[in-house]
Amino acid sequence: MKYAVGIDWGGTTISIGLVSEKGEIIKKIKHDTADFGKPNTFFKKISPLIAQVCKGKKNIMGIGVGAPGFIAPEKGYIFDLPNIAGWKKIEFSKLMEKETSHKTYIDNDVNVIALAEQSYGAGKGYDNILCLTLGTGVGGGLILNGSLYHGAGYNAGEIGHYPLKPGGALCGCGNKGCLEAYIGNSKITAYAKSKMRKEKKTLLWEMCGNDINSLTPKHVGEAAKKGDKLAVEIWDYVGKNLAVVLAGVINLLNIERIVIGGGVALAGKPLFDSIKKHTKEMALDLLYKKTSIVSAKFKEGAGIIGGASLVFNANKKK
Amino acid sequence: MKYAVGIDWGGTTISIGLVSEKGEIIKKIKHDTADFGKPNTFFKKISPLIAQVCKGKKNIMGIGVGAPGFIAPEKGYIFDLPNIAGWKKIEFSKLMEKETSHKTYIDNDVNVIALAEQSYGAGKGYDNILCLTLGTGVGGGLILNGSLYHGAGYNAGEIGHYPLKPGGALCGCGNKGCLEAYIGNSKITAYAKSKMRKEKKTLLWEMCGNDINSLTPKHVGEAAKKGDKLAVEIWDYVGKNLAVVLAGVINLLNIERIVIGGGVALAGKPLFDSIKKHTKEMALDLLYKKTSIVSAKFKEGAGIIGGASLVFNANKKK
Questions:
Q1: Taking CB atoms and an 8 Å limit, are A151 and B253 in contact across chains?
Q2: Contact assessment for residue B135 and residue B185, using Cβ atoms and an 8 Å cutoff
Q3: B110 touches chain A (CB under 8 A)
Q4: Which of A151, A283, A290 shows the shortest C-beta gap to B153?
Q5: Among residues A206, A304, A309, B127, which one has the fewest Cβ atoms lying within 10 Å of its Cβ?
């Protein structure tokens, strides 16, 4: 059996795992991102942890990393990790290889998740996939013609900034009307609150212990699963907004699989039913028929498995 | 010098040309599409015309065809040409090769135009291009990672059916609110007429000889070039609507070049100024900066040159 080290590098925590070629996580370590510091200490500190997860195994094919920022994967180069100080213009793979003697690959975190789903998850067997992560923001990873698509400057996938309602709600990016400004985590909460205030007969009040300020999309998800009318309507609002962009992407790219993950996607059936219904209304029949919209397979482990997939894929291509 | 035969196969006319590897049309013949008939007569009738354009030249690398319909390019197979009777499920390349002894390639007409622009036109030197054709409909051809992108079922590029205003104006496809339902040729005319009726002080009345029913987008283009306020406003309406979708595509695909052609694009500066202004407003700064929006180089010859490019490209890849 062959193995690879997958590293899920987030703004808060770093998870380091050993993954088998079958996509199973064999061993896993989690640390605070802050523990590793800037490049001058990072590689020295992470190296023994990598050795630790690999202990007792042969055939380690390399290290694959998903990182939150702007990366040139062919060169293993980090342009910038906006949320982690000290990581501008770093030859990451080269430095990691020097320290660990393992061939190293790195890509954007959202792309790595898409790769995990294609390699071992809900995208398996498909060559043209849009993988969405619904959370604080709306992230997108594209697999086209069987491979990750990066775009001209490695910045493809910014589907959260699709101009859904031009001139509308202010988005974190500074523009107005982006998809994310309607279906980002906090926007869903704000929308739900505004609806709750006008409706006393909803399970949402009970869910949040009558404290509207503690309401989260998770509460809305649970209420909808219990059939709460208002909660179902809230997910229909989210689904309809997302569907506009999905229909556009289906018509433009003729993709065959849309994989949706992230915390917000845990709302499950009420959300997915709405997404499918409205996407069907807006996409061309011929193209919608050939596209399936499904829930992501992986939750926490996606970054580790996807990181390892970077390694296994690179070895397949050789 | 190497040559290829490029065939621009339209619903009304077929143009057959000999193209040099430099992208120059050396010789050209035009016929009514109806003259060639269905597959049982088509190949016999077109073969001598192909021989005619090739006469006196050596190094003919093959034949490349752009056709209006659903095509599987790898197999040279026509699923359907909706506007030309008798062309369902035809092994086009195989039959053409049998008749002419020239290696034959075929692709969708919009894709072939995108390839012409990439090979010899306004997309030269770029690997990630959206090529738009603005006319009766809004067609799109995508070059991603240097090659034509076809999608899972060879139907990518239906950008005209992007849901611009969900639930809005009825589109020819049966859905409501598609981009095409706002900026297709006849929709621009209808919008211009509705504005003219409320405004006597516009050059548009003079342009159409005071016969509003004879108004075309060409009149609106000419009036705008002369500085007519209403005409400029009409192009701003068109540009703004198109910009929503272009900003979305830039953010999603991180393309570097948008090439816009077709009859409507002849409006020129007033239209392009509006497209650029509004796309800049809605796209992410980082991505907009790396994208240029330009006018297509080719007009009539694009289909012939693009057809020939299919041949030259296939030979490069070998």
A1: yes
A2: yes
A3: no
A4: A290
A5: A206
- Return the structure tokens found at A72: 């040139």
Q: Is B248 on the interface with A (CB under 8 A)?
A: yes
Instruction: Say whether residue A292 is in contact with chain B using an 8 A CB cutoff.
Output: no
Task: Give the per-residue pLDDT at B258.
Answer: 98
Q: CB within 8 A of A40, min separation 6: which ones?
A: none
Buried b (16+ CB within 10 A) or exposed e, A185-200: bebbbebbeebbeeee
First to last CA, chain B: 18
**Residue B249 phi, psi (nearest 5):** -70, -40
Helix axes A229-253, A269-282, angle to 10 degrees: 40
Q: What is the residue-level pLDDT of chain A in tens, covering all 318 positions?
A: 999 999 999 999 999 999 999 999 999 999 999 999 999 999 999 999 999 999 999 999 999 999 999 999 999 999 999 889 999 999 999 999 999 999 999 999 999 999 999 999 999 999 999 999 999 999 999 999 999 999 999 999 999 999 999 999 999 999 999 999 999 999 999 999 999 999 999 999 999 999 999 999 999 999 999 999 999 999 999 999 999 999 999 999 999 999 999 999 999 999 999 999 999 999 999 999 999 999 999 988 999 999 999 999 999 876
Chain B nearest C-alpha distance from A236 (Å): 15
Name the H helices within A87-228. 92-100, 109-120, 180-183, 185-196, 203-207, 217-225
* A170 burial type by CB count under 10 A (0-12 exposed, 13-18 middle, 19+ buried): exposed
Measure CB to CB from residue B156 to each of A159, A161, A252 and give the nearest one.
Answer: A252
Residue B129 one-letter amino acid: I
Chain A contact present for B247, CB below 8 A: yes
The whole-number pLDDT of residue B255 equals 97
* B77-80, strands of its sheet edge to edge: B70-72, B77-80, B88-90
Alpha carbon of A311: minimum distance to chain B alpha carbons (Å)? 21
Record: contact A149-B253, CB cut-off 8 A:
yes
CB contact residues (below 8 A), chain B span 13-72, against chain A: none
On whether the CB atoms of residues B69 and B83 are closer than 8 A, the answer is yes
Query: Cα distance from A211 to chain B (closest Cα, Å)?
Result: 35
Q: What is the pTM of this model?
A: 0.95
Could you read off the pLDDT of B225-273 as tens digits, one per residue? 999 999 999 999 999 999 999 999 999 999 999 999 999 999 999 999 9
- Tell me which chain B residue has its CA closest to the CA of residue A252: B157
* Per-residue b or e along A272-297, where b marks 16 or more CB atoms closer than 10 Å to that residue's CB: bebbbebbbbbbbeebbebbebbebb
- With CA atoms as reference, the chain A residue closest to B286 would be A155
